[in-house]
């Protein structure tokens, strides 16, 4: 069974480095996690300060020690700029080998293929190192860019989960589309 024990492995693609989030990333990440444009799609409340962002970084790194979450910072290799984050929000290995991903980029970096590139690297890691068989993503119906990107990566839309989570920004519940990609589908696409 895969165990990271709090050490986030560094991964690389042609333009990107996926690496552990550090305390000094807080000011930059606050620009994204404090931006309504980004967080409206994440079903989380906008973070209010750099300190809140630092607390979130520490929370996520702490959760990776108990194998409950794995979150990478996404860095542009060329400039070293931190442009967003991605990771496994949760995974269940025993009896399922299933994981759920989450991801976000600063708005200035949207539409340049960065997230599909980061996710390909992360998916490869999920299937081959973590031993996952099925990787899922939950997406708000109005998040057309994320849905488009998942389709490009070969994820299949499996249905609408009605009132699946409490709305973090206002009263009520939200519907989420369930997307999933199986290990054998991923391997097949890679062979093409
Ligand atoms: C979703 C997100 C990660 C996509 O990352 P990205 O690196 O910009 O992805 P891409 O460069 O592949 O661009 C997204 C695709 O959606 C398309 N797209 C963008 N806005 C769209 C819209 N309103 N309607 C339809 N398609 C749209 C783009 O044209 C592109 O498709 P293309 O390559 O065929 O032209 C990024 O937009 C983001 O961080 N959003 C905020 C956080 C978020 O939504 N996280 C995911 C929660 S499930």
Automatic annotation (TrEMBL):
One family name in Pfam for this protein: Acetyltransf_3
Alphabetized InterPro entries for the sequence: Acyl_CoA_acyltransferase, GNAT_dom, N-acetyltransferase
Residue span, N-acetyltransferase domain: 16-185
Annotated keywords: Transferase
Classification lineage: Bacteria, Bacillati, Bacillota, Bacilli, Bacillales
PANTHER family: GNAT FAMILY, PUTATIVE (AFU_ORTHOLOGUE AFUA_3G00765)-RELATED-RELATED, RIBOSOMAL-PROTEIN-ALANINE ACETYLTRANSFERASE
Protein's name in the database: N-acetyltransferase
Organism listed in the record: Paenibacillus zeisoli
One Gene Ontology MF term: protein-N-terminal-alanine acetyltransferase activity
SUPFAM superfamilies noted in UniProt: Acyl-CoA N-acyltransferases (Nat) (SSF55729)
Gene Ontology cellular component list: cytoplasm
